[in-house]
């Protein structure tokens, strides 16, 4: 494809068309909605913003920091097929120089691990005295590290991250440091689901969690229950065809229903119809077969996250009058973002992950938007719409579509109607 990258073109790639052709004609509109609402994270978007988040978090820590790539770990073999126990971290890693340990596992699948390890290596080179790349236990002790930052691309169910934390928790020396508050654990990822983040937060090591962008899921979209139900049924119907023996993956691992895909790989928390390979000659053609991204499909991954169409988002959220008003046309990008967020909150869509997907904002900018809305008294501290917020939306709904003036066209700033005469924030 020679055109500029665009996630909406995913379904028009040769691979996308082959995937779509497997669905019955009556199901194809829903399948297209699944593909069109995936957040596609390119290498550039991922690397730049994970590094930026790492720089921000590290700047807040005064002393030395140990940094580790979160990865799959070795476990004790359990009898009778039961779940095995994690092995303490330093019992399963090697050190060539006595100062650091190997950053990657022995697994052949090192897509995300390799990316994250490269970012950590690059980051540590900028200040090797403060930032320690996979230090040994002896180096952590010698440098008297104030924190350990565990880095990953994505928190899905939270299981892998929690197991990695546990491998450090099993080291008596580190537990002693944690108990004495000599050190703390921090987890930093590009993205994460609400359920996964909540799971990691409950870990006994009490880690601080930092993410750059909330992960969208098909559960968190501002769609009505009917459309969400159709998506769930689609995943079941065709998940059964793709692999009838892996029911636990039809809606993604741990029924995550995640809607985010990285250029370096598709998380297994996404529905299996997106990535299930040709299992035992089922004949199924995944959009990202075996969770890999082909060069053709990679060509549609945008250099940065693309904001959704505010008109479509508002219509799907049941805000049809606002979607068809002239307000969205005249307020510029910032105004569209503000009105979209306020309209979703008015419909009870208060989760940050929902607002983030609808506006295209990362965690930091989404929090700023919410703070502004609270400050202006359009929503309260529980993210519920106020009478003043409803009045603002009603005024926007009454705005007629008309020819835009040159000032309107050039404006990227939006001041709520009730604040325009004294907008000095």
Q: Count of helical segments?
A: 18
In round numbers, the mean pLDDT is 88
* Backbone shape: globular
Number of separate strands: 7
Question: Pairing-aware structural class of the strands and helices?
Answer: alpha/beta
Order of strands across the biggest sheet? 3-2-4-5-6
H/E order of the elements?
HHEHEHEHEHHEHEHEHHHHHHHHH
Largest sheet: 5 strands, parallel
Distance between the termini: 45 Å
Q: Beta fraction of the residues?
A: 5-15%
Radius of gyration: 24 Å
Query: How helical, in percent, are the residues?
Result: 40-55%
Which residue ranges are poorly predicted, with pLDDT under 50 across at least 5 consecutive positions?
403-425
Textual characterization of the structure:
The chain has 425 residues and is an alpha/beta fold. It is built from 18 helices and seven strands. It has a five-stranded parallel beta sheet with strand order 3-2-4-5-6, with helices on both faces. Helix 3 crosses helix 4 (111-126). The longest helix is centred in the middle third of the chain and has 18 residues, at 225-242. It is globular and about 70 Å long. Mean pLDDT is 88; it is low at 403-425.
């Amino acid at each position: 494809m020679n055109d500029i990258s665009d996630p909406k073109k995913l379904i028009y790639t040769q691979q996308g068309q082959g995937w779509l052709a497997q669905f019955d004609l009556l199901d194809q509109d829903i399948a297209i909605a699944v593909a069109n609402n995936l957040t596609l994270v390119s290498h550039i978007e991922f690397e730049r913003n994970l590094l930026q988040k790492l720089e921000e978090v590290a700047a807040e820590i005064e002393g030395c920091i140990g940094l580790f790539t979160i990865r799959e770990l070795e476990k004790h073999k359990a009898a009778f097929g039961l779940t095995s126990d994690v092995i303490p971290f330093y019992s399963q890693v090697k050190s060539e120089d006595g100062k650091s340990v190997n950053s990657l596992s022995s697994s052949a699948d090192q897509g995300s691990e390799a990316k994250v390890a490269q970012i950590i290596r690059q980051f540590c080179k900028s200040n090797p005295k403060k930032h320690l790349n996979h230090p040994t236990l002896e180096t952590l002790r010698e440098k008297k590290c104030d924190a350990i930052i565990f880095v990953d691309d994505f928190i899905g169910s939270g299981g892998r991250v929690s197991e990695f934390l546990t491998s450090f928790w099993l080291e008596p020396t580190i537990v002693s440091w944690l108990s004495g508050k000599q050190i703390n654990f921090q987890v930093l990822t590009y993205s994460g689901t609400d359920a996964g983040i909540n799971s990691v937060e409950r870990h006994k090591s009490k880690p601080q969690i930092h993410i750059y962008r909330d992960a969208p899921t098909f559960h968190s979209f501002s769609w009505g229950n009917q459309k969400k139900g159709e998506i769930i049924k689609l995943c079941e119907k065709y998940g059964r065809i793709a692999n009838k023996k892996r029911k636990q993956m039809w809606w993604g691992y741990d029924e995550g229903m995640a809607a985010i895909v990285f250029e370096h790989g598709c998380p297994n928390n996404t529905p299996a119809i997106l990535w299930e390979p040709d299992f035992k000659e089922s004949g199924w053609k995944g959009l990202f077969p075996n969770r890999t991204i082909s060069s053709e499909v990679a060509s549609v991954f945008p250099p940065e996250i693309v904001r959704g169409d505010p008109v479509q988002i508002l219509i799907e959220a049941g805000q049809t009058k606002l979607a068809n008003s002239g307000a969205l046309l005249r307020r510029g990008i910032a105004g569209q973002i503000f009105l979209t967020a306020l309209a979703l909150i008015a419909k009870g869509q208060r989760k940050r992950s929902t607002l983030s997907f609808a506006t295209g904002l990362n965690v930091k900018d989404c929090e700023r938007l919410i703070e502004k809305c609270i400050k202006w008294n359009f929503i309260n501290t529980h993210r519920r719409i106020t009478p003043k917020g409803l009045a603002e939306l009603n005024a926007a709904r009454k705005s007629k579509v008309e020819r835009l003036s040159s000032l309107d066209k050039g404006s990227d700033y939006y001041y709520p109607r009730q604040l325009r005469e004294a907008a000095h924030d």
